[in-house]
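note to self: the first set is below, dont mix up w the second
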Amino acid sequence: MKINKILVARDLSKESSRVIRYALELGCKFHAQVHVLHVMPTVDSSVLNMVALTMGADNLAKFNASNEAELAEKTREQLTAIIQEENELMECEIEHPPLVEVHHGDPAPMILAVADRLDVDMIVLGSHSKGALHYAFLGSVAEKILRKTNRAVTIVPPQVGR
């Protein structure tokens, strides 16, 4: 089995660093390029419409553009810091520096689109373990990805790496 590219998709929760470390360790073992992805969810259109009525559509568009760019840059910086911290804790040395991407959108479709664009061999995701009720009514990003991809997917449970 050859794994050349790994995509790890994470939010900025406390578990993020553990899941990123897991992906980095896989990258070391397989000499693979690791891509770290964060997807910032978009605001619901009904909320945007209410705000646009108050501040005007043009003002809202300008506000969103500047804030999204600033938030994306701060997120990139946070992910880079997490990668550096986790890299220092690892025993093996990373052959390829991890690449960071930040996008806006619906997490599951965006993760799948980035995985396709990069042609990754494996997707690494964290599990939040929010309970049966959450999954029964809302579903999960991990579950959606598992149902819609033909790539290898590794789900890292909350207990791993503690």
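second set (the one i keep forgetting abt)
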Amino acid sequence: MEFVTLNNGVKMPLEGFGVFQVPDPAQCEQAVTDAIASGYRLIDTAASYRNEAAVGAAVKKCGVPREELFITTKLWVQDAGYDAAKKAFETSLKKLGLEYLDLYLIHQPMGDYYGAYRAMEELYRDGRIRAIGVCNFYPHVLADFCETVQVIPAINQVELHPFFQQENALALMKGYGVTPQAWGPFAEGKHGIFTHPVLTEIGKQYGKSAAQVALRWNVQRGVVVIPKSVHKERMEQNINIWDFQLSDADMQKIAALDIGHSEIVNHYDPAFVKMLHSLKVHE
């Protein structure tokens, strides 16, 4: 495993394990247990995934020292705001059964996310969180945010995969010292990514799968990846990307796959924004 040093000096694994869309407690706990046994040390969850308790149960039982793990969770839209964020943080920490978080992220730039971030800055300064950051902050939003807040986000977790590469966003993040992290590194299976001819052909050179090529391409761009699977053999395959390096020619072939927009979400759609506001993680 390789690591990236965040803008506050904290080291974070370049690859982790995500648990989005694994709400069943038993399945989630088993998946995280298998992931840690397979070598993953970064585990990424969120209040809105409704599986923080299952993640915490796996962490408690895994046998790996807490300081060797890097645990991330996220603040949901419902809890944007200074006081609400303070309360939501404590709720997440209790569900996870932890004394501190390695990374706490604003899940969406919606509601009073500036107020929420002020609360996170305080929790960070108090040592309750090792690093704070954001998700889904498009370039214009991130620029305004970084020009306004006191603590520059350590991470911006956004959609990044061969079909939506966001080079302009990566350039802006680099300028502010924000590390990019990819959600949906497999494009949620779109474009036949697991059998895509370009990725498959590149993989043949190295004895790797199209999925491994997609992950390796992102980490070579300095992007942290968090692939998800509930199948242990795929977890093991996904983490087996550290013994090869894509050539410049390979990287250029993958660069040509970019379609320049998301086919998964549209944050510019008012109906989508209203839908996110309507999703409640608690009463």
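remember for set 2: Residues 82-96 form the longest helix (15 residues).
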